[in-house]
Structure formats: structure tokens, C-alpha cells
Amino acid sequence: MNEWPLYAQQRWAGKRVQRLEDPGMLTGAISYVTDVQLPRMLELAFVSSPAPHARITSIDVDAARSVPGVRAVLGPGDLAHVHPTMDFVDLEGALKTPRVTLPGDRVRYVGEPVAAVVADDRYAAEDGADAVIVALEPLDDEPIHDGIPDGRHFRQAAAHGDVDAAFARAAHVVRRRLAVQRVVTSPLETCGIVADYDAATSCCGWPRSCSRPRTKTSSWSTARSASAAPRRGGFRSRRSPGRPTSPRTSAPSSATPR
Fold it and tell me: Which residue of 84, 98, 168, 196 has the lowest C-beta tally within 10 Å?
């Protein structure tokens, strides 16, 4: 049964809604990603793109690999075997675009990771990321995705009731064209994930369930993958299993000897 009519019948304005997650967060009873401590744990930092759309001309990681405490620096070529993820939003007629783990040709949004640095601690990981030199060539006038030249992923037209009759009997008609930006949930908090790879058993991720994208984007089978998503701070949009965050963390975990 479609839930939206049920939601439409309810009125939330002016009501007091009890929040269930606040007591645990305020009293420290709920742990966060930084509270998770596993044997042989390393820190991961990404080198992010400062450009919204640009061609990657070069990535120099030599200086980063010499930073004390850095265990590995991974570029697009190191994770080329990880297949792109795809969003699972079910919109009929929507165009799907792949989301690669680390892009090798170009970046398509500000903050897109282009390299990963694995180190003994957070300080070394961030220092290593700062030492990576990425050369970008802006692509201001080119489409972000070649298969979508006009940049529109989804089109929808909706009409309810007798629209023509409503306009015909209206005392006044105002014509105006409105442009509304795309609306997506953007949490203010950061998001984090812990991945523990064991070649003989499984690859586990905390705090989100990441088995679905991981098994779709790599050669690991579902039988060899496991995930744990205990109650932690955050909202569903950041714990969504379709995001590329999981393979970006699980893949370096499997590629880094400890």
C-alpha cells in the first residue's frame, strides 16, 4: 500500500513530537565511529577535488608516500577493479549515472575523492593527503555526463483535476515560469565508516549496512561479506547503502597490508 496518502492525512504542524534518539546522544550512551577500536586499525583520508567539473591531467603521490606513518597511497588505477555503484532511487524514466570509487578521467562535483591515503593515525593520513598533487583542467562548458548532454536526469509532468476548466473560470490568471533547484538531503554532520577486511572470512563495515553495494561493486560474494549497523548518531540519508562511501572504504582496507 502506498504510504503517501496516509502521510498526507496527518497534520504535524503545531504538534509535539517525541524524539527517540536524543537521550542516548546527550548522555553519551550511543557510540560514534571514532569510538570503534579494532586490532590493526589504520586511518583513511581522501584527497578531494576543489573543482565542480574538471579533467584529471595528473596525480602525483610520490611525496605523500614518503610522509612518516603513511602505509599506502591509492589512486584510480589501484581501485580500477571496483565497479561503479548506482543509486537505487526508483523513478520511472530517470537516467542513471555510475559513481566510480576513484575517478581516473575527470571529477564531477566539488569534494569528489580522487586519491586515498592510509596511515597509522589521523594526523599522518591528513598530512599524506595534503602532499598529494592533483592537476585539474576545468571543463566549464562541457556536460558533466556524456550520456546526458542537457544535464537533466529526470523529467516529470503532473496534472490534477480539470486544469483547463479551472483556468477558464478563474477571475484572474497569472503566468510565471519558476525554476526550483534540486532538493536532496544534506546532513550537517560528517559521515564515517570502519571497514575490516579479512581475506579468509569477510569484510565488515560499521556503522552502516554496506553489503549490497560492496557485493555489486567487487568480486566478493555475499556469503563472504558481513556488515553491522548498530544504533549510532545520524540519519538515514548518510547510512544509505547505495552511496559510494562503502566501496571507497572497503576497497582500501582490502588493498592495504597490516
Answer: 168
